[in-house]
Amino acid sequence: MAALGATAGLLGLLTACGSKPAAEAVAAPAPPPVPSVAPIETGKPPYGEQPSRTPSPPSAPPTCPESGVYVLAEEPSAAMGLRAMTLKLTNCGKRTYTLKGYPTIRVLDEDGKPLDVRVSHGSAGIATLDNFDAPPRQVTLRPNETALAGVVWRNTVTDSTVPAVNGKALDVAPAEGSPRQTVAELIDLGNTGKLGVSPWYTPEEPAKKTPTSTPTPRRSAWTTTQ
Asked: InterPro entries recorded for this chain (predicted)?
């Protein structure tokens, strides 16, 4: 009996030592956090694509000057140092406007002062171009009609001791004695010191001695044979 009592006491002691209060019980592991998902932005292109730009509205035509005509320059074409550019004169007035001959041109520096550049009628030996050496003819423009003239030069350096000339604009008059207009355009002459100018003509003239196609805005259409 004494042995049984000792055994029961020992079992009770072990049971007491092996149990823990409810407060000390190990809590169940917390569930992992749910990953946050950024909301999808509607209207934004995926994969870093850039949204398409809204095309700019066409620019308004220049204000019509008192002379009733304005002159714009189209972007020069360039090939192996040769530059060819189209001047476009538009009759913005309410009366007909008559031209015959060549525009008078001066090349201006960044301060608006004339540079020492020789301007010749025709291609001036710079290159062989359609229409440049055709004889002048009378051009009569009704309101909103246009006439064209070409300007050609070379961007070459023929003398390393002479600084290259870069004109920043053209001072243009439709004819000798007519009001002059400034046309902003880079004229990179190298140090050749010369450019050639064609007579005025209309886009509707026959194909002979004319450019191969009617110039489109901001792009010269002169064809060249170097």
From this structure: DUF4232
Q: Which tens digit of pLDDT belongs to each residue from 98-138?
A: 999 999 999 999 999 999 999 999 998 898 887 789 999 99
Tokens of 171: 């001072």
CATH number at residue 78: 2.60.40
Where on the phi/psi map is residue 132: left (φ > 0), alpha (ψ -120 to 50), or beta?
A: alpha
35 DSSP 8-state letter: P
Comparing CA positions, the residue from 85, 57, 56 lying closest to residue 71 is 85
- Cβ–Cβ < 8 Å for 197, 120: yes
The ranges of the chain with pLDDT < 50 are 2-5, 7-8, 10-11, 13-14, 16-25, 40, 42-53, 56, 206-226
CA separation for the pair 117, 126 (Å, rounded): 14
Determine if the pTM surpasses 0.85.
no
Query: CB neighbours (10 Å) of residue 43?
Result: 5
Distances in Å between the Cα of 35 and the Cα atoms of 31, 32, 38, 210 are 12, 9, 10, 72
Residue 153 lies in a domain: yes
Q: Are 69 and 174 in contact (CB under 8 A)?
A: yes
